[in-house]
Amino acid sequence: MFRKFWRRAVMRGLTAGLVLGGLLLAWMGFVAVRGFSAMPVRSEMAVIFGTAVTAEGKPRPALQERLEEGLRLWRVGLVRIVMVSGAIESGNHQDEARIMADWLRTRGVPAFAIIVDSHGNNTWLTALHVAQMRPDGAIVVTQWFHVLRAEWALRHAGVAPVSGAAPSRFRPVELWYLFRDSMALPVYVLTKAPPG
C-alpha cells in the first residue's frame, strides 16, 4: 500500500515537473524570439540601458554593443534624442551613464541630443525616469534577452509607443540572462504599479 502511494506520488511529481519545465522553456523561447526579432520604430528617443563598465571607465563589450546600436539609430534618423541610463557602480564607483554619454559625444552625438540618467539602477527606475520626460515614443536599446522586459516596463510606466532594438551578437553566457529575465518579467507584472 505504502509502495503504491509512494510510486504514484513520484510519478505525479515527475509529471508536474515536466509540465512546468516545458512551460518555462516555451516562455523562455518566446522572450528570446521577441528579443531577436525586435524592430525599432521611429521615435523621439532611444533609451540605452546601462550595464557594467571597467574600473578604468570604459564600456564592457555588452555595453559597447548597446551604444553602437543606439548610435546607429541616431545616425540614421530613427531618433532625435538618446537617453543613457545606468547606475553608479558600487564596486568601482564609475558612473555608467556619464561614461555612455562621453562615448556617444566622442562619436559625434551633440551634448544637446543626450539625456544622462545616472540613477537608472534597474529597468523599472529607468522606465519611470523616461516616463517623466514624456517622449513621443521610445526605442529601448539593450541585449536581446532584456528587450521584452524593458519594453513592458516603459509601456507600464506610461510611455507610448515603445519598440526595441538589440545588437545581433549572441554569447552562450546570455542563456543564463535569458533565464533570469524570463523570471523577472512576471515578477515585474505582479509588483510594479504604474506611476500616479
From TrEMBL:
InterPro entries per UniProt: Cell_Envelope_Assoc, DUF218, Rossmann-like_a/b/a_fold
Every DUF218 domain range: 45-171
Record-level GO BP terms: Gram-negative-bacterium-type cell wall biogenesis; peptidoglycan metabolic process
Signal sequence segment: none
GO cellular component, one term: plasma membrane
Pfam families the record matches: DUF218
UniProt xrefs under Gene3D superfamilies: HUPs
PANTHER family: ENVELOPE BIOGENESIS FACTOR ELYC, INNER MEMBRANE PROTEIN, PROBABLE PERMEASE
Protein name: DUF218 domain-containing protein
Lineage: Bacteria, Pseudomonadati, Pseudomonadota, Alphaproteobacteria, Acetobacterales
